[in-house]
Write a structure and sequence with these properties.
The strands form two sheets. Strands 1-6-2-3-4-5 form a six-stranded antiparallel β-sheet. By secondary structure, it is of the alpha+beta class. The protein folds into two domains: 159 residues, endopeptidase fold (from Nostoc punctiforme) (Alpha-Beta Complex); 48 residues, LysM domain (Membrane-bound Lytic Murein Transglycosylase D, Chain A), CATH 3.10.350. The protein is built from eight helices and eight strands. A hairpin with a 2-residue loop joins β4 and β5.
């Protein structure tokens, strides 16, 4: 059984698992080390983290980093050359930007993808308060993190492009530091403390001397977000044109694509 097959089997086995209260779910319990509840603990990313952990593949998810924050996954994938767009495939971790602000809001594990139909089949946590198997339009995906699963000898670090300017800097917490103070000193604006907290997947503001924090990018991160938005708009435009053309012919989009590719 390959690593992707092992993960797929685990994620499939979780379909139907639901919250017993607002965000009170077993995956959050595993992530935070005890039960949590409330709007501050969305769990779609914690679900993915837990799946890799349960399958003994923690090192394949963000190099073993622990995060429950979707934008962190996007940033990590970009830093290590693992960020991809269509065509997607099984094993990809698909990210969604629901509000179009350039920051990922949701994540799911891809179990199947049809380029011809323009769809992806994904298992997601925290979808209508449960684990769901969803079929979505590939045009609605902002991009994907494609882990180096190892079947071809790939490693996450080996995939990192040399001199990647989008890589996040790190900061080691010192005695007396606070998130506000670090944001003010390292990011130039103390009011970005919550962005710093969320970027590192911290459940609260508690930090300790010696903790290593990733610092959100500025110009390069915004440039990458703009590129993602432009690519998403282009994919949507292409798909809309395909739908119109297929409607004119009285055939499906899949049939139109099959004719085009012959």
């Amino acid at each position: 059984m390959t690593q992707i097959e092992k993960l797929t089997a685990w994620f499939e086995s979780q379909v139907g698992t639901a919250e017993t209260g607002i965000n009170n779910v077993i995956y959050n319990t595993h992530y935070y080390g005890g039960p949590v509840m409330g709007a501050s603990f969305p769990w779609c990313c914690a679900f993915i983290w837990d799946g890799f952990r349960e399958c003994g593949l923690s090192a394949r998810f963000c190099g073993g980093d622990k995060t429950a924050y979707c934008p962190y996954v996007v940033n990590w994938a970009r830093q290590h050359g693992r960020w991809v767009t269509q065509p997607y495939r099984a094993g990809d971790l698909l990210l969604y930007d629901w509000d179009g602000d350039g920051l990922a809001d949701h994540i799911g594990f891809c179990v199947d993808a049809s380029f011809l139909a323009g769809t992806v089949t994904v298992i997601e946590g925290n979808t209508d308060d449960a684990v769901r198997r969803m079929t979505r339009s590939a045009a609605g995906v902002m991009g994907a993190y494609r882990p180096a699963y190892g079947e071809t000898g790939e490693t996450e670090d080996a995939a990192a492009p040399a001199g990647d300017k989008t890589a996040a800097r790190t900061y080691t917490v010192q005695r007396g530091d606070s998130l506000w103070a670090i944001a003010a000193r390292e990011l130039g604006d103390g009011s970005r403390w919550d962005e710093l907290r969320r970027f590192n997947g911290l459940p609260n503001t508690m930090i300790h001397p010696g903790d290593v924090l990733y610092l959100p990018g500025t110009e390069n991160r915004e440039e990458a977000a703009q590129e993602d938005r432009a690519a998403l708009e282009l994919r949507r435009d292409i798909y809309d044109k395909l739908i119109d053309k297929a409607a004119e012919r009285g055939i499906s989009v899949e049939e139109l694509l099959e004719e085009t590719l012959k």
